[in-house]
Amino acid sequence: MKKEDKSTLVKELEAEIKAYPHIYLTDIGGLDAAETTALRRQCFNKKVKLLVVKNTLLKKAFENSGVDYSQLYDYLKGETSLMLSETGNSPARLIKAFSSKSKLKKPILKAAYVEEGFYFGADKLEELVHIKSKEELIGEVIGMLLSPINDVMSALQSGANTIHGVLETLSER
Prior knowledge:
Elements: H1 3-19, E1 22-27, H2 33-45, E2 48-53, H3 55-64, E3 80-85, H4 90-101, E4 108-114, E5 117-120, H5 125-129, H6 134-172
Antiparallel strand pairs: 1-3, 1-4, 2-3, 4-5
Helix pairs in contact: 1-3
């Protein structure tokens, strides 16, 4: 491959990395054509971008991205595919579901950068499946803050209904 082609690929990878906040490094080596096509189709349906990349080019793209991904460099060995997503747990759920049906138990999680944290090894997959996005956590906090107010309002409304019922009963007598 020519040097110009490599630099073009690095720039394209760099743009992809900057476009997505969540990065998964996986191993899909050994999957046959039908399984690879099925995986790509599921990735497309879940809005996960799947790229098979050369480790050296990916490392250069990480170095040029402006974010310190140096903790991921040790996992750029062997066959590497890159899963990029807007949602932090979407690729993890996809990996878990697909590998449970695959004969080779692939894709295998090598490492991930999710919600500004690093996760290493296939044993972290379950943790990544259950991770919540910042928006989900903010929604839960707001729900917890509104819960006491809603309880007071419903108690006041039920009290008003009780008083109304008592007054109606008294007026009928």
